[in-house]
Amino acid sequence: MAYNLTRRKFLQTASLAAATVPLAKVVTADTGFVRKPFTPPGSFADTKTATGGICEMCFWRCQIVGKVREGRLVKLEGNPKSIDNGEAICARGNAGVKLLYDPDRLKYPMKNVGERGNPKWKRISWQEAMDECGSKLKAVQDTYGAHGISVFPHGASAKYPMHYFERIVGTHNVSEASFFQCRGIRDTAYVATIGTPPGENVDMPSAKAMLFLGTHLGENVHVSHLKRYLKGLENGAKLIVVDPRYSASAAKSDIWVKIKPGTDTAFLLSVMNYLVANKKYDVEFVEEYGSGFDEFKKGISHATLDWGSKICDVPAAQIKEVAEMLAANAPHVSIHPGRHVSWYGNDFQRQRGLACLTGLLGAVGVKGGFVKPKGPKVKGISWAKGDHGGEHNLREMADKHHYSPPGTPTDLIREACVTGKPYPIKGCVIWGQNPIQTIPNQEMTIKALKQMDFVVCVDVMPTDITMYADILLPECSYLERYDYIKKGTQWNFADTHQQYISARTPLVEPLFERKDSVWITNEIAKRMGYGDKIPVASQEEKVDKELASAGLSIAQLQKEDGIHIQPGKDPYGVPEDFEVLFYNEDIEDNGYPGVPTYIPVEEVPKGYARLLYGRSPVHTFNRSQNNVWLFNAMPENPVWINDESAQKLGLKDGDRVTMVNSEGVKSITSTSVKVTPGIRKDSVYIVHGYGSMNPAMTVGVGAGIDDQRLITKLAVDPETGAHGMRNNFVKLVKDGKVLEIPA
Ligand SMILES: Nc1nc2c(c(=O)[nH]1)N[C@H]1C(S)=C(S)[C@@H](COP(=O)(O)OP(=O)(O)OC[C@H]3O[C@@H](n4cnc5c(=O)[nH]c(N)nc54)[C@H](O)[C@@H]3O)O[C@H]1N2
Ligand SMILES: Nc1nc2c(c(=O)[nH]1)N[C@H]1C(S)=C(S)[C@@H](COP(=O)(O)OP(=O)(O)OC[C@H]3O[C@@H](n4cnc5c(=O)[nH]c(N)nc54)[C@H](O)[C@@H]3O)O[C@H]1N2
Ligand code: SF4
Ligand SMILES: [Mo]
């Protein structure tokens, strides 16, 4: 492993590293930090091409085809017909083959005859597994009510069971980490400001300038999104990256704002106040579409360049330079809304700030701005919606988090589990989520799991969460099942207005006793007395019915090489009834600031550094840790430490360290040190998802450090109830000696 690349070389390679054709043509990946996607040697002339695949090594869901030899998948490629990812897939997409045939994969239904957290597995039949799930969940429902069941879903296959438990069984206690620990805040803050969740819908290919907060594209890899970003750069867009760390994007930027962590809202307010005070904003746009602008103007007038400079620890001149660059290129600016935005517990306000800045620059519906492409309509088929009222809705009972994403904030569920108040939660369904490594404060999560009467976990791999299941069920992977309708528009939605519809169809037959989610959910539903409410008999039927709503079918899609393409619509123009609520009275009535406001975060205590985390282009959270190709590409997550600090501490590249946080929690595993000028002195950084503890993951177990173990301090975002996860402080430990991080 070449972690000892020079900084320059690392910066050249890290950014795009992971992509294959045609991305590789844009930026050539060097060897080193990230290897080129592995292609098995030999000829594929004798293989058959299976179309209709949709990748789910991550949730961007690129369109793929498989090369199949004698029923065995030997290679994955982008679907050449795709007008989204095209022929390009990333290193993780490429390595899907290794997930499919991972010998550690779950194969049969299992019953835990040991303890939760320290399991002993006994193979059982599906009949027995389903009987047990049905009767145990029914018992919880009968004793504690439907709300006694909690559900932790993620991924395409988890939607159907999620709807079953929400709509038919009738529990509100559903929590998606992909909302509450990810992008939920972004969506509700934009809805409260411009009336719509933003997706990642910025027209980067046509942008003249782009602004990223955090957003580390190149390490965060979503193929078509990356294509848009690179096209923008290729077309000469200016790039402003705000990040305490020299990220892959920062390495390509014109301005890198090395911001003090947690202070981004102050930065945005300073930029906006400068634009307003100097009349450098889009006056006409604001007059036509703005609401509450006077309150906004007054509310941010304290945010001078000097004020921002002091709080953010960046030069006032740089904040001004950013504002000037945005103004000079407006309205053709992509103010990126971000994706993982649950950072500090003050995040709703920052996301509101981003939406307001977009409006201030008039960057809506224009080339380069915030543009929502108009995709085709396909009707989803699932369980019929029931009306179960809000009686046991924890969020409503607590009368807080009024801008919560759909579902129930994880923390409210976990608290109810641990305290039994306002009511007990005793059943748990975990479907494609890994709360142990996904939700901060592992100790609380483990307490919540241990007090359950019954825990069922549906997964493909034995990850850390599966150790807490009573019944563990093996699901078909995304390469072996029908389920997801992928629809959208041409990747850059600018040149040719085209739309596409595709559906996930299996590339190979499932092996062992793996089943799909419609089958599993229906069997549980029958045993809980809801057999008459089952909407579809099979996953294939579900997909076919959904396609029928768009005049298509699985058979038709197969004739069209897996993707139906049709003429699209011009995405530009400001949507009808569009409004920017610079000041939002409702927010204020609910007890939060109605004008975007900076709420300070806890300062780093002496001797500590703030623990930051992010993505690696070759891994998806923890879910890819056992994948041998990806493991080999990045077998651990070196901790980034500032070079001057390292020198004072006598730390060198490659030294082995563990970590301890300010609450005394120690990492169980160790990692190496990466010494770099590319990070502030007040922070250290690791890639999220490492440090697995499940010995059944024979490749990934024990590699690197688990950030989540050290994230013990919660910072709940008041508006949304989502978790801020960057308020934890750590020291490094070398050879048993705890090192005081210099200020
Ligand atoms: N390869 C790969 N790609 C992925 C994923 C994956 O697992 N693997 N996951 C996908 C998912 S679900 C998501 S949500 C996205 C997440 O990816 P992003 O949405 O890009 O996540 P961020 O948290 O914005 O970005 C992490 C960056 O934020 C910086 N940062 C830390 N603190 C601060 C701060 O206070 N201010 C600022 N301005 N920056 C800060 C870190 O240094 C790091 O560079 O990635 C997606 N893409
Ligand atoms: N500390 C920290 N915490 C974070 C983040 C972070 O960066 N740092 N990132 C946050 C973000 S942005 C997100 S989106 C969340 C994601 O958090 P999760 O939703 O928990 O992450 P996943 O990796 O999608 O899901 C994990 C489980 O799904 C299983 N799985 C994979 N494929 C399938 C399948 O086809 N079927 C089934 N049934 N199971 C499957 C995996 O084996 C694994 O056990 O984590 C959040 N939490
Ligand atoms: S970005 Fe990579 S891992 Fe994610 S869906 Fe596309 S090919 Fe798969
Ligand atoms: Mo996410």
Automatic annotation (TrEMBL):
Classification via InterPro entries = Asp_de-COase-like_dom_sf, MoPterin_dinucl-bd_dom, Mopterin_OxRdtase, Mopterin_OxRdtase_4Fe-4S_dom, Prok_Mopterin_Oxidored, TAT_signal
The record's section on Gene3D superfamilies has:
2.40.40.20, 3.40.50.740, ADC-like domains, Dimethylsulfoxide Reductase, domain 2, Formate dehydrogenase/DMSO reductase
Q: Which Pfam families match?
A: Molybdop_Fe4S4, Molybdopterin, Molydop_binding
Question: Where do the 4Fe-4S Mo/W bis-MGD-type domain residues begin and end?
Answer: 48-104
Q: Which SMART domains did the record assign?
A: Molybdop_Fe4S4 (SM00926)
This entry's Gene Ontology molecular function terms read:
4 iron, 4 sulfur cluster binding; metal ion binding; molybdopterin cofactor binding; oxidoreductase activity
**Where does the chain cross the membrane?**
none
Question: Which residues belong to the signal peptide in this entry?
Answer: 1-24
Has the keyword Nucleotide-binding been applied to this entry? no
The keyword Oxidoreductase appears for this protein: yes
Q: Which UniProt keywords apply?
A: 4Fe-4S, Iron, Iron-sulfur, Metal-binding, Molybdenum, Oxidoreductase, Signal
> What family name appears in the similarity comment?
Belongs to the prokaryotic molybdopterin-containing oxidoreductase family.
The name on file for this protein is: Molybdopterin-dependent oxidoreductase
